[in-house]
Design a protein that fits this description.
heterodimer; A: alpha/beta; 8-stranded mixed beta sheet; 11 helices; globular; B: alpha/beta; 7-stranded mixed beta sheet; 10 helices; 7 strands
């Protein structure tokens, strides 16, 4: 564990006098979402950021640790600071490490985080999950609500850790109501700095898609999701919530609007796309992992109304603005 | 997207485009709803269906004034003719209704989403996977939904059983009562004669993973189709007992039977 920055020079505001400032732990602090969440929180809270990896973009106003959640030293962070709340955004991505190590990091690591939160008197926990947990199934109805079974683990082994992580958080949600856990399941997160598969696809000049399949998709701008995370932290409404805007687009139309050239891959027989995705991913370096192929065939459209109503959330960036950003980036690079 | 736009500009007649301007359409900023419905694709589909509706099947639609111009609605009809031609023709009648056009949504079989192009195209023109959650959400969004409660029992039945209503599923009545939705019954006459079937080749159907393979003409015959829309029926909820649901289903079935008899009486001949 290493400490990267001191907490000197923190911003203080009129609305939150120094003695009332409470400490918040943010995991995944160096990521695109983490940085935006911290930016919004540091006005009113003392923020401690942790991340698995060393990140270039570390806020000088924030105490920052580089630590593995599954290591015992992680507990020292809780010992050193008396956290009022925890925002858990950090996760080893499904393309990083092997499945077993990812499981340890994401599931066992989160278990530690929840254990320490309980042990050290944390009163609010926000967990970032994903709409991937519902699984891409041909017969998915649209507007899946939060009580829809999480089928992802049954459909692809690579997403077992995502579903297990959620199950674990759900157990804590009901077993330890004092932690006030709020689990967020956002749709595809995109926007500047986001390094997930969908964002990389929209940013690339050539984007893979399957012939005859253009599933409906939802996208949320990373700034809007950061707002949602802060709302979830500040409003005491524990539970599981989908987070998605009230707008939808077919995948291939999204590619067209983002200025991508479509690379059509044969979709039949059903086993072929997985093999081709491995080739495209491994050889051509395009962000099209084989285990996610079904998400490019079948829709996973979630219903974000519950979160919108309970938290008064309304995304500010439209789909058009999101795609304009990616198109603009391509024009700038070309120029 | 660009290609669709080109086709729309080139082929969609002005009256179909105007009908869409008048009808309630609930889509997002980029022209899609959560199920993939896209008005531009629907306009193209209706343009293609126009020939079938007006020239091939020479459809006569009566009672279109009974269809509410907006708000949630279940359109319940008898099912026949091997292919879901009846759904297509009812959908066209609703979309071009002079009393107030509406885009109706129809349930599609669960294997369609796995078929390249077909699944997406059906979604774009209003088809949705037949799932109760889909139906509830569509009605909550004040859409009109076409349901054939006989399902494949009706569409796949042999010619000797023509105009004999098969068992009605009760799912639509639960929806109507729980979602406070009016039902417009429809009696379809003529589709039975478009594809008279001697029976189904069941082993082949099993092999292909589809409900039936009829022994029937390869293309639909040009029988005249008559659609009779009845007055809206309302059934108060919530559901107190299944017995009450079955009684209500029978009322709808009786009304559809009456509308079929009316259509048969109006018909001068199968192909005239």
């Amino acid at each position: 564990m290493s400490r990267r920055a001191s907490g000197n020079g923190r911003v203080r505001t009129r609305t939150a006098p120094a003695r009332e400032r409470r400490k918040v732990l943010v995991t995944g602090a160096g990521g695109a979402l983490g940085r935006r969440v911290i930016e919004r929180l540091k006005e009113c809270y003392d923020v401690v950021g942790v991340d698995f990896r060393w990140r270039k973009h570390v806020d000088p106003d924030v105490v920052h640790y580089e630590v593995d959640f599954e290591k015992r030293k992680f507990q020292d962070v809780f010992r050193e600071h008396r956290f009022a709340g925890v925002i858990h955004l950090g996760r080893i991505g499904s393309t990083q490490l092997n499945r077993a190590r990812r499981y340890n990091s994401n599931v066992i690591g989160t278990e530690r985080l929840l254990q320490y939160s309980q042990q050290y008197g944390v009163r609010k926990v926000v967990i970032l999950s994903s709409h991937y947990v519902y699984g891409a199934d041909a017969n998915n109805p649209a507007l899946l609500d939060e009580s829809t079974p999480m089928k992802a683990a049954n459909l692809t082994n690579e997403l077992v850790d995502s579903v297990e992580l959620e199950n674990l958080c759900n157990i804590y949600l009901y077993k330890h109501p004092e932690l006030n856990i709020t689990i967020l399941r956002p749709c595809n997160i995109v926007g500047p700095g986001v390094q997930n598969n969908l964002s990389k696809i929209l940013a690339s000049r050539v984007a893979p898609c399957l012939i005859g399949f253009s599933p409906m998709m939802q996208f949320i701008h990373v700034d809007d999701l950061a707002e949602a995370v802060v709302l979830a932290y500040e409003k005491d409404q524990r539970g599981v919530y989908n987070v998605a805007p009230d707008d939808w687009i077919a995948y291939q139309d999204a590619l067209e609007l983002a200025g991508c050239h479509r690379l059509f891959l044969p979709s039949l027989p059903p086993a072929l796309p997985r093999v081709l995705a491995s080739l495209v991913n491994g050889v051509a370096g395009l962000p099209f992992p084989s285990y996610l192929v079904n998400y490019f065939k079948y829709p996973v459209i979630i219903d974000g109304r519950l979160f919108a109503e309970r938290f008064g959330f309304r995304p500010r960036r439209t789909l058009q603005e999101i795609f304009d950003y990616y198109r603009g980036e391509k024009s700038r690079q070309a120029a | 997207m660009k290609f669709r736009h080109y086709l729309k500009q080139r082929f969609v007649p002005s009256d179909i485009a105007e009908a869409f301007d008048r009808m309630p359409v609930n889509v997002g900023e980029l022209g899609y709803d959560p199920w993939g419905f896209n008005p531009d694709s629907a306009k193209l589909a209706l343009t293609a269906i126009r020939f079938l509706y007006e020239k091939y099947f020479r459809v006569q639609a009566h009672g279109l004034e009974h269809i509410p111009q907006q708000g949630r609605l279940l359109v319940i009809a008898n099912h026949s003719g091997q292919l879901p031609m009846d759904g297509v023709l009812i959908g066209y009648a609703l979309a071009t209704n002079p009393y107030g056009p509406r885009m109706a949504r129809a349930m599609i079989e669960r294997f369609f989403p796995t078929v390249p192009w077909i699944g997406n195209v059906l979604n774009q023109i209003g088809g949705i996977v037949g799932d109760p959650l889909n139906c509830v959400n569509l009605l909550k969004r004040e859409e009109a939904v076409i349901v054939f409660p006989e399902g494949v029992r009706g569409s796949g039945k042999p010619y000797r059983l023509r105009y004999q209503l098969q068992r009605f599923g009760a799912g639509f009545m639960h929806l109507a009562m729980e979602q406070d939705t009016p039902i417009v019954p429809v009696g379809v006459v003529g589709c039975e004669e478009t594809m008279p079937s001697l029976g189904s080749i069941d082993p082949l159907a099993k092999l292909l993973g589809i409900p039936y393979v009829p022994i029937a003409p390869l293309v639909p015959l040009p029988a005249r189709v008559i659609l009779n829309f009845g007055e809206p029926m309302r059934f108060a909820g919530p559901v107190e007992s299944e017995e009450q649901v079955v009684e209500n289903v029978e009322q709808v079935k009786d009304e559809i039977r009456r509308l079929i008899d009316k259509g048969l009486a109006e018909r001068k001949g199968v192909f005239r």
